[in-house]
Design a protein that fits this description.
Blueprint lengths: L1 E5 L12 E5 L10 E9 L14 E2 L4 E8 L9 E4 L6 E4 L1 H4 L8 E3 L17 H14 L6 E5 L4 H12 L3 E6 L2 H10 L4 E4 L5 H8 L4 E6 L3 H9 L1 E9 L20 H7 L2 E4 L9 H13 L7 E5 L4 H8 L7 E5 L2
Parallel strand pairs: 9-10, 9-12, 10-11, 12-13, 13-14, 15-16
Antiparallel strand pairs: 1-2, 1-4, 3-5, 3-7, 3-16, 5-6, 6-8
Helix pairs in contact: 2-3, 2-8
Bound molecules: NADPH dihydro-nicotinamide-adenine-dinucleotide phosphate (NDP).
Length: 334
Amino acid sequence: AKKYIVLNPFDGEPKKSDFAIVEEVLPELQENEFLAEAAYISVDPYQRMKLGTSYPCDMIGGQVAKVIESKNPEFPVGSWVMGHFGWRTHTVTKPENEKFSAQKPYLYKLPDFGDLPVSLALGVCGRVGNTAYFGLTEICQPKAGETVVISGAAGAVGSHVGQIAKILGCRVIGIAGSDEKCEWLVKELGFDCAANYKTTDIAKFLEENVPEGADCYFDNVGGELSSTIMSKMNKFGRVAVCGAISSYNETDPEKRKASILQFFFIGKGLKAEGFLVNRFADRNLEGINQNLKWVKEGKLKYKEHVTEGFESAVDAFIGLFRGDNIGKSIVKVK
Ligand code: NDP
């Protein structure tokens, strides 16, 4: 068995030299335990932010794994699980070990995915999908006919949010980091329009293409771009503050400040609410099943950015902060 450890705190962008792969000896299975073999591991922006306080430490992360030995009748050999086991090839565990609290479903057996790939449990039919589903429906609460703007729009969460907003009858505008991404959003996913923030004056783009103003903003990136988008919102608009990836690699604390936003909030009476998907943990399966249903009905499309091989996981992680991925970034273990 192998696992990734993080050798030191990240300094700016994560680097290959921050990580090492080490061998791990697995313990004998005890009563109620099972051995799971990773099939897909998840690559997510939060992994940049939430590591331990002492180093070296294990790399955190979710994975879809198959049970290959078991002393737990609830998790028989052959069953698929989603577990927050970190970046490791094999895990010996039991449900009691994984339940930090009732609010955090870190281990569950996958519902029936039918013909769909089990890797979707890391994306559209998992935590990421629930972030999109609950973040949009509970925090933004868009009504049919309203306009929704999304940053990080071609990523895992953003591309999903836009499609739910379309299902709900909204006008949907995506902001993403390449022309290829914008084309995918409009031509494949049915966004009404999209702009590349790296080459476009976003204030001007919104004035010209969203003259009605935005009622909802699903914010995945924070920083200047979000400030510009919020300046073009309608009075009493709602902002779901989901992520702030534009600042995750920022080493200068001064640059992380977002005081520039306050002016718009006051003048427009905006309502912004931060959230973690864990807040909706007790509705985990409701979100997964709704997203699964939409995928099976063909109403929700998805793209997976698959990196092959356990040894390539760090490349995938670094790529996330360079915008290499369209849709959900995952690693196929073998
Ligand atoms: P993505 O699949 O969106 O991947 C990250 C994307 O972010 C990149 O592809 C890149 O796209 C964009 N990006 C990278 N650097 C910057 C930058 N400096 N400025 C603007 N965009 C940048 O990841 P996820 O969908 O998994 O996550 C999206 C956001 O949601 C993140 O901020 C994440 O932390 C947050 N999140 C929050 C959760 C919650 O519970 N609140 C749960 C899950 C995710 P591009 O080419 O467009 O720049």
